[in-house]
User: What shape does this take?
Amino acid sequence: MSPVHQFHQDDVLVLTIDNPPVNALSPGVPEGLHAGLDVAEQDDRIWAVVIIGAGRTFVAGADIRTFDLPPEQSPDLRGVIDRLDSFGLLTVAAIHGAALGGGLELALACTFRVAVPGAQLGLPEVRLGVLPGAGGTQRLPRVVGVQKALEMMLSGNSVGAEEAETLGLIDDLIDGDLLTGAMSFARANVGNPPLPRVSKQKVKGGSPELFAAARAGLGKTHKGQYSPDLIVDLVELATHKPFAEGYAAEKKKFMQALASPQSRGLRRLFFAERAVGKVPGLSKDTPLTEINTVGIIGAGTMGGGIAMNFLNVGIPVTIVETTQEALDRGLGIIRTNYEGTVRKGRLSQAEMDRRLSLLTPTLSLDALSGADLVIEAVFEAMAVKREIFARLDAIAKPGAILASNTSTLDVNEIARSTRRPESVIGLHFFSPANVMKLLEIVRGAATSDTVLATCLSLARRINKVGVVVGVCDGFVGNRMVGRYGDEARKLAEEGAAPEQIDAAMHDLGLPMGPFEMSDMAGLDVGYLIRQHQARVAGAPKPGGWLDRLVEEGRKGQKTGGGIYDYPAGRTPVPSPHTAALLDTYRHEQAVSPRTIDADEITRRLIASLVGEGAQILDEGIALRSGDIDVIYVYGYGFPAYRGGPMGYADEVGLASVVADLERFGSVPAPLLKRLADEGKTFGEWDKERGRG
Ligand code: 3HC
Assistant: This one.
């Protein structure tokens, strides 16, 4: 059956795009629209065509899943758009939900656009590493002007229907039933020729200065990205070339962007982000626990940040500390954070007051007896956590979820200190917890499906991307970063300067290199982890020169010096002290420093991440390679346009990663070796197991 249904009422033909879930322009949709337009042309009674979407939305754009198809199998969106652009009858796009990408481009080729309040219109292609490829770069500036068009296409942000009406992007805002309103609008405008065509309008605005400023801004907002420049070029072209010329150029550039590794990486992330909520074996119908109140133990930086997530969405929080002083300090930090947001104009004073009124500070753990969810966010020591969970077990109501914000410790051991291990889970927030989008949801051996499903749903409610991971030291993110940090440390031992190592990661698009990150987190954190690991393994796991820095009291930014010096605030400056310490260390270890180039640094650091990631997959700690990428993009700033570390490895080829690991003395995980030998990618492996 065609995904486009037709019916006509008197003189109006209605074409309903019905391609769930979001009416993407998949194969069959352009054909269905053509068939409808054929009918409209052949039936003398019909004077107007209304195009509308079934279900929850108008059209969310081209079907991203078809982007890798050969051109002859790809849906011919441009064909139907061209036909609409010169169609002899009046056409109205009736928009609810979202008109995004190709959806908005389809609407822009109609003679009129109407929408219900709350509808969203936008061209988000840049987020997929491409650009509007069905006329958007040429038509949007003709309607909303160059400046607004650039703003929309470069940010990918959509505008609401009300703003769209002000901008002239829609011709009428329909209160009430959209289809009825769209048909009335069509009838009211039939017989008022000539039919308006966006392609025939003049581009509004645009000066050489404006384009120069737009290009200059990209260095900050879209550093290293390929498609934003193309968007600016095409909009500029629209200002001085006929529509047809700009339109032809757009097609060419769209295909170039589509073929770029950046677009592959961003598309991989798009689907990976949507897959993380799907846990094999966890039924969609799993009953959820209602979370109406949250208790948090510990009002330190983490506890306070975690609390804000719930306050922000209207969930009351009781926060517990052991001393009044610590409680006051924690509340002070929360208040200061909110005040900063109010000062920036992003939050009203009234809303800040409302959020703070939902917060109950207390010194009594007993106050958590009514909480639906309790999150422990205290010092990272097993003995302390076990004691707290044992006490919680006696206090918390039956069915309450008991979560630990541990970043490394064994959640199963924590669970065993209660008589209800099925209620225990890890919720690993990333610092600053009120800002970072990532939440590792650590599923213990006994964690119940209800607890897991509730935490996944809660993650969405508090605007986090929740990724389910298994129990191991450091889970996914910190375990990989540990391995990466070790490799960085070795590179420095062998002769690379710390700033050279960090610079290689900047060049890859990471905001921080491994040493800047360590200095920010505090070198003592890694130091304590190494000590802990050494105790568990019963063998020393030396941090070499890094341990020396900590033992000297250089713990990073917080002590004004670590690997780098910090003479002015948080800006790292290469440290002569660290350079001398490294020299001494190398001398003692009988290492003759060698020159190490950026290529080797990048290869080794990436191979270390990917090697550990593959091991994590092999052990089942992460469900799919895409989950690891989501963790690395949202938790560690790995550039999304590189597809995350596993996506990046797929791009460079797993055989090359294996060769790098072997060349630099590491043993590749069996899974990585096998996939490399078979010439496969992690993405293919995910798909083979039905998880892609
Ligand atoms: N193509 C294919 N599948 C799509 C899709 C698209 N354009 N948009 C969404 N989907 C799928 C998702 O993968 C998901 O599938 P799943 O259920 O199997 O996981 C399902 O639709 C629902 O998506 P969400 O979970 O994201 O649903 P939300 O309600 O949270 O969000 C949305 C809906 C706002 C439409 C969001 O999906 C979205 O932003 N989609 C992408 C929009 C976009 O980027 N459009 C431009 C495409 S490129 C283009 O049009 C090129 C053109 O210029 C030639």
Summary: The domain at 4-259 is CATH 3.90.226.10 (2-enoyl-CoA Hydratase; Chain A, domain 1). The radius of gyration is 28 Å. The mean pLDDT is 95.
